[in-house]
Design brief:
Length: about 475
């Protein structure tokens, strides 16, 4: 059966057009009223865009985050602990909090605050950037760290402890949460995402599809170092379909975290933080090169987390030595000399615009004097870099319209734009939110998003609240308003 989207605006400010879809592919585009098909959907004053894709999601952490206590308003560890005490967990369960901003606290977190308020109830609190996890004594015992001196875990130690904690919840229960949460995404116009959860994603997704059916969005399942050997032995290659997933899940990139984060003061920087530290290099250059080379030779595209400018320089150097393409996740602080290297090396800048507006106060404090090149999306774009937008959910809301509006307006709280010179034009932001697809073209897979009106005429508020009328994945409607 063929489907015709009749009369919608083709792209921002585009002409009214017909888009015909056959067997999941766009087969014809013409002036409104010029084409026909078995099923005709009249769009009226609507705009047809390539499908929106979130380029950076931690799916399991995202669904757990939805079940956690919001502590973003806490101004210190004592206040956060009191807020948690007011939330009684079900018997036998542990308590989870989220979105603390320790970089703005005058008193550091410590397990004694949680122990004093919550006693033997296991408590785990994650920072807004997911690079710090704060445990009480009961929770430390659950993850095999009963003698940890502070209960504050950072970077690799935090990632591994959270993974051990996640294994305490039955996989079937988590898979149900994920199926429920993914069902909401087509209403936002999303047709795909890259899942960078620290887990054996290539095993998890077929299990989820077997239990709950194919996901309503395309999933590119990332690989981390603990599962790299198995992926290579199985002949996995980035972009290929994962068997048993009805074609909706593909092998994603190979993820490495090379440095820390801004909020945790562990992003590896050339200039010091106020405490004279420079952050952390988590993977030495020789080890990074060996891992990336091995993955690339096996057909796996590297996706390297780099936030500080020194980390971005080091990662770009490795890309240059190997001669491979790939992605840098975040690219939050980039030396001016490194900006053109993204385009020269074919490295995608995978960025999350909500970070620029959420972290502006922390950046002004910790990166004082260099914020003109922080979250420098316009500078990267003007230098020819390919930008792809994401949320880093649960760090930021999994909502592509928030990411687009943040990239364009550089503020989300009524304050003047933060470094407005780094704002992206709307068409550039939408292309970046569509995984680099700038237009709907004949021969392309029919992953499409249809929105009411013309986004190019929208105010900031209207852009954030863009009404999605329909979403199609492979020509099938996953959402119709």
């Amino acid at each position: 059966m063929s489907v015709l989207l009749r009369g919608g605006r083709l792209g921002l400010g585009g002409a009214a057009s017909d888009v015909r879809i056959d067997d999941g592919t766009v087969t014809a585009v013409g002036p409104a009223g010029s084409l026909d098909a078995t099923e005709v959907v009249s769009l009226g004053d609507a705009t047809v865009l390539p499908g929106l894709v979130d380029g950076h999601v931690h799916v399991e952490q995202w669904v757990r985050h939805r079940r956690s206590v919001d502590l973003s308003a806490a101004t210190g560890p004592a206040e956060a602990a009191r807020a948690l005490r007011a939330t009684a967990p079900a018997p036998g369960q542990w308590l989870s909090g989220r979105d603390i901003v320790p970089a703005l606290w005058d008193t550091p977190a410590h397990k004694r605050f949680l122990d004093g308020e919550l006693g033997d109830v296991p408590v785990v609190v994650r920072s807004i950037d997911l690079h710090t996890t704060w445990f009480n004594s009961a929770a430390l015992a659950l993850v095999g760290l009963p003698d940890h001196p502070t209960g504050v875990l950072r970077e690799t130690e935090s990632i591994e402890a959270n993974h051990r904690l996640s294994e305490l919840t039955p996989a079937a229960e988590v898979d149900g949460w994920i199926a429920e949460a993914l069902a909401e995404l087509p209403s936002l116009g999303l047709t795909g995402l890259i899942d960078l959860e620290f887990s054996d994603n290539l095993a998890a997704w077929p299990r989820r599809v077997a239990a709950h059916g194919a996901p309503p969005v395309r999933v590119h399942a990332g690989i981390w170092t603990p599962w790299l050997d198995a992926a290579i032995a199985a002949g996995r290659r980035t972009g290929e379909v994962v068997e048993g997933t009805s074609g909706r899940v593909r092998v994603g990139p190979y993820k490495i975290v090379s440095d820390g984060s801004l909020n945790t003061r562990t992003a590896w920087c050339a200039d010091p933080y106020p405490d004279d530290s420079h952050g952390l290099c988590l993977v030495p250059a020789d080890e990074l090169e060996a891992l990336m080379s091995r993955a690339w030779a096996a057909g796996l595209v590297p996706a390297i987390h780099a936030i500080g400018d020194r980390a971005n320089t080091a990662v770009l150097d490795v890309f240059a030595r190997i001669g491979c393409t790939g992605r840098i996740e975040h690219a939050q602080l980039v030396a001016l000399d490194d900006v053109p290297r993204f385009a020269e090396l074919g490295v995608v800048a995978s960025v999350q615009p909500q970070h620029a507006v959420t972290d502006r106060d922390v950046a002004d404090r910790l990166w004082a004097g260099r914020t003109d090149r922080a979250f420098a999306y316009r500078t990267l774009h003007d230098a020819g870099a390919r930008l792809e937008l994401g949320s880093d959910a649960p760090v930021s809301p999994l909502d592509p319209w928030q990411a687009i509006a943040d990239a364009v307006h550089r503020s989300d709280d009524g304050r003047p734009a933060w470094h407005p010179e780094q704002a992206l034009p709307l068409d550039v932001a939408i292309t970046a939110a569509c995984a680099g697809r700038a237009s709907v073209e004949v021969g392309a897979v029919a992953d499409l998003t249809v929105v009411a009106g013309d986004p190019s005429a929208a105010s900031e508020e209207s852009l954030r609240g863009t009404i999605v009328l329909a979403t199609l994945v492979g020509g099938d409607f996953t959402y119709r308003r």
